[in-house]
């Protein structure tokens, strides 16, 4: 066999193999791949073929079709996810948290002294770490509360990165204010590691939105579910929003991505404008 490093797998997929990959990815993650995205599948799969010493994508797909290849299938599904994220992404939701939603929630939870926030599809962790920094920075009075920030994603690889709390220069240059970089990160070679005081505020776990959610998930005060529904069919979005409804406290908040909405999908959510941010609250007149 030729060396994996020098192999350059034939990089085009025949339509049958492309269909097989699309089906697999849809079944395992609900991500819909449009026919026009064949180039994307090819570019994401080529490194996997190379790594496994396979000479073509056709061979890779043949390998995936063999029984007992769950690990390979999982690797392919994870490779097809888009992990784009940044600290303080789209800023307005975090302004809304800081100026209005957290102060109100904290007042309402002053007896229970608990706060639970779920950053779903959190990719490499910038979103839950942003939330942790906001709590640490602006709400010192609740330091003794039972605060849970849960970061979850389908991809075990990206969660390993999130748990490490290690970010490169480009990542910390995107959205993170310089004072927070200096205060909450320390240099490690050419990278930056988030300090334990923030890292330990976030727990990461694997949750696939389209599989059964862990029964251990607590009721949530705030759910971030941003920039992931866009990949799904309307039916899948409806199912997921229905599941969010069940884990959200009746007075909780849901944040979606800028291009996402509950409109025409789930009438139990009401759009709520907070400054320049949009979040969704449950319509308590509905069951
Ligand atoms: C574009 S990133 C969004 C990251 C972050 N929420 C943000 O807005 O910056 C999309 C993430 O969704 C995850 N994802 C895709 N399908 C998923 C599924 N079925 N269940 C859970 N996470 C999924 C991907 O692994 C990826 O990390």
UniProtKB/TrEMBL annotation:
It is an enzyme of class 2 (transferase). InterPro entries: Bact_Chemotaxis_MeTrfase (IPR050903), Chemotaxis_MeTrfase_CheR (IPR026024), CheR_C (IPR022642), CheR_MeTrfase (IPR000780), CheR_N (IPR022641), CheR_N_sf (IPR036804), SAM-dependent_MTases_sf (IPR029063). Its EC number is 2.1.1.80. One of its GO terms (biological process) is methylation. Residues 6-261 form the CheR-type methyltransferase domain. It catalyses: L-glutamyl-[protein] + S-adenosyl-L-methionine = [protein]-L-glutamate 5-O-methyl ester + S-adenosyl-L-homocysteine. Keywords: Methyltransferase, S-adenosyl-L-methionine, Transferase. It holds the Pfam family CheR. GO terms for molecular function: protein-glutamate O-methyltransferase activity. Signal peptide: none annotated. PANTHER family: CHEMOTAXIS PROTEIN METHYLTRANSFERASE, CHEMOTAXIS PROTEIN METHYLTRANSFERASE 1. This is protein-glutamate O-methyltransferase. It comes from Pirellula staleyi (strain ATCC 27377 / DSM 6068 / ICPB 4128).
């Amino acid at each position: 066999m030729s060396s994996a490093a020098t192999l350059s797998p034939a990089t085009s997929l025949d339509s049958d193999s492309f269909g097989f990959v699309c089906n697999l990815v849809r079944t395992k993650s609900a991500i819909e791949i449009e026919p026009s995205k064949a180039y994307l599948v090819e570019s994401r799969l080529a490194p996997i073929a190379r790594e496994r010493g396979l000479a073509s994508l056709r061979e890779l797909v043949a390998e995936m079709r063999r029984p007992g290849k769950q690990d390979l299938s999982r690797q392919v599904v994870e490779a097809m996810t888009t992990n784009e994220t940044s600290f303080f992404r789209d800023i307005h939701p975090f302004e809304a948290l800081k100026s209005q939603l957290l102060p109100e929630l904290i007042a309402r939870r002053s007896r229970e002294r608990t706060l639970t926030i779920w950053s779903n599809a959190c990719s490499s962790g910038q979103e839950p770490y942003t939330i942790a920094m906001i709590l640490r920075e602006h709400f010192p009075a609740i330091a003794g509360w039972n605060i849970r920030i849960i970061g979850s994603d389908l991809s075990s690889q990206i969660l390993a990165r999130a748990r490490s709390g290690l970010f490169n220069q480009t990542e910390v240059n995107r959205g993170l204010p310089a004072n927070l970089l200096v205060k909450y990160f320390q240099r490690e070679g050419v990278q930056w590691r988030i300090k334990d005081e923030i890292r330990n505020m976030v727990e990461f776990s694997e949750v696939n939105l389209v599989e059964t959610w862990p029964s251990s998930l607590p009721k949530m005060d705030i759910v971030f579910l941003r920039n992931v529904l866009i990949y799904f069919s309307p039916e899948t979005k409806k199912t997921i929003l229905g599941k969010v409804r069940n884990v959200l406290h009746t007075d909780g908040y849901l944040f979606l991505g800028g291009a996402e909405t509950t409109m025409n999908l789930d009438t139990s959510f009401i759009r709520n404008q907070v400054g320049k941010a949009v979040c969704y609250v449950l319509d308590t007149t509905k069951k």
